[in-house]
Every structure is written in C-alpha cells, then in structure tokens.
Amino acid sequence: MKKKHLLSVGIFLLALPFQAQEKCSIQGTVKGLPDGTVLTLSRKNGRVMENVAVDTVRNSTFLFNIEPANQQTERIMLMGKGDGFPNTWLDIYIAPRQSVKVSGSNKLLRTWIVESAIPEQQYQNQFINATRKDMDVQQSLQAVTCALWNRVDHSESADEKAALRDSIRNVLHPQTDSIQRLIVKEEIRIMKDMPINDAWIDRMETFSAFVSFGADFPYTEEVRALYQRMPSELRETEIGKQITTQLYPPKTVKVGDALVDADLFDLQGTIHHLSDYKGKYLLLDFWSYGCGPCRMAMPEMKEMAEAWKDDLVIVSISTDSKSLWEKASEAEKMTWVNVNDLKGTNGIYMHYGIRGIPHYVIISPEGKLLHVWSGYGQGIIRAKLKEWVKK
Asked: Where would one find the signal peptide in this protein (predicted)?
C-alpha cells in the first residue's frame, strides 16, 4: 500500500509542471501608474463581460497567469479603475504556454504596447499601430467624460449637474464620435486586404452593430462589402450569425402588428411559445444579467406577476448564454415565466427592433402589440400595466 501511495504522489508531482504550462502569463510594466492601481481582466460571455482576474500595481508592474478558455487562443480585455482611465479596455490575445508583455507610459490603456508570439495579437497590433494617434485623442476625451460624469454623481447642485450633462452631450460626445469615425475608416481600409482572423472578425462584429444601431453611420456599404469576404462556414458560426443579422436585420414588428413567436426554452428544456398564453395580456421583458436596470426591475416584476396573475402573464426572455442565464435565474429567484431562445440577439430579439435593454412589450389577449418602451425606473412597470391592461 505504501509503494502504491508513493507512486501516486510521484505521478501527481510529475503532472504539476504540465498543468502550469497550460496557462498564459501577462507581465506588464506601465510607467507612472500609482501603486495600488487596480487592473481587471475580463472575458466575454455572450453580451456580458465577466471578471476573471484582478491585480494591483506595484512599482509600475503587474502580473497575471491565466488559463485560456477551452485551452484555445482567446481575446481577453484589460481594464483599469480610477481617475484618468478611459472607459475602454486593452485587447490581449492569450494562448496556452505563451507569454505576453505589456508596456506603456500613461493611463491610455487601449494603446499600450502588447508583445507576444500569438498570431492574432500581431493582427490586432496592425490596427492599433495604424490608429494610435487618433485613439489616444479619443481615450483622452473619454477620460474627461468619465471625470465629468463623476462630478455629476457627486454634485448637489441641479444647475451644475445640468451644465455638466450638456457639456458631455454637446461637446465631448460629438468630438469622440468624430474621432471614432476616423478610426473606423482606417480600420476598414486595413480589413480590405488583411487575411480574415479573430481581430478582423471582432471588428466586423463591432462595425455591423454600428450599422444596425446608427442610421447616420457613414460606412454601411463598406462594411457590407467586407461581409462578402466572409466564407459561408464563418457566417454559420454564432458570431457570424450575429454579424449577418446586424447587417441584414429581419423585418421588425410595431405597435398594432401581430406578435412574433419562437421556440422559447425554460430552464428544464421545455419549449414554450407566446401563443400558449393567448387570451391573456402579455408583458415581454427582454433582459440580460449584465444589464443593471434589468436586474433592478426584478422585484417589481415579481410583485406585478403576482398582482396581475388573473389577467397577465409576464414572460422574461434572456439574451444570455445558457450558462449565464442559469446563473442569473438562480441569483434573481425568478418565479414567473423565464425563457431563452438560446440565440442571443440573433433570434426573437431582432424581430422586436430592440435598441437597448431592458425592453418591454405589452401584447393584447388577441396577440397584437399594444405598447413598447425601453428602460426602467421604479414604479414604471406598475404604471404601464395600469394604463394598458384592462381587468
């Protein structure tokens, strides 16, 4: 028995170096960062950015050792907290058994220099190097905007709050948007000849969202031309489908139209349809775990689901991945109809013309759209139901 025990321990010890090699190290040196500065690494889970590691700067340095998801190359995002940081992030590609070095000399982290042997990072660096000057201007404007919003939050003067908001809306946002258009124009130029890679696809996803959400986006045709470069197998991936639906959205329903239905799964995998509830009013609630106002609305949703149960069915439709939706549902203790078409924003979401969440739709017992609104404030759901639902 003793020999067997020693043998098993030996095998375990031999395995440790191989396990450690599966991680990727990120070593950073950024001059001027104060000791105690908090840096966070996040990865995307559907529409939500989840924190995976935190480090605190000491002597201008930081260190992360991260295991890539599924032991494959992936993009993660490095963000900074505190005064002077813009509300953006640094894109870093990591891979098993690779080392990444990050360097910089200020808090404009999106243009910090990233060095590694990972091919995707080389492509990412092409974009950054070509737009660094404009991107630094944009980040500086974003940092000022963050500082002004902080003053809005802490000011006790209504007049000062209004003046600060006007400065942000009428001065800083137009300047930031103008710089953004210059950056997009240059990146589109690069994408015309660059081999399709993860950094290329990431920008394609962003630009297709600009097309979907902004009627004044000036490069719609150029982005659609880039789409023609995407092979059919890429278009069939989850991100490919998202790009497709954002560039070529389906017809959306409006007030007075019949509802759009879909296969909607509950947490047990049972399929539901909106038509199952015909004969009662419906309140559709499109939401995500990463949406603060969506979660703020949950207590009122629970109260209304009980108060109006004889006349109304509340149907919350998550846009999150299955794993995140399950986590969110447990955290929120949802007692009403809670479903997901498992298509993110590429399924039923697109048919309702949603621009932001939470997004609510009141539907008549006959299946017609009665009223639509976005955003949450305390008491708004109660007020809307009193206005539109007839007992």
From this structure: 1-20
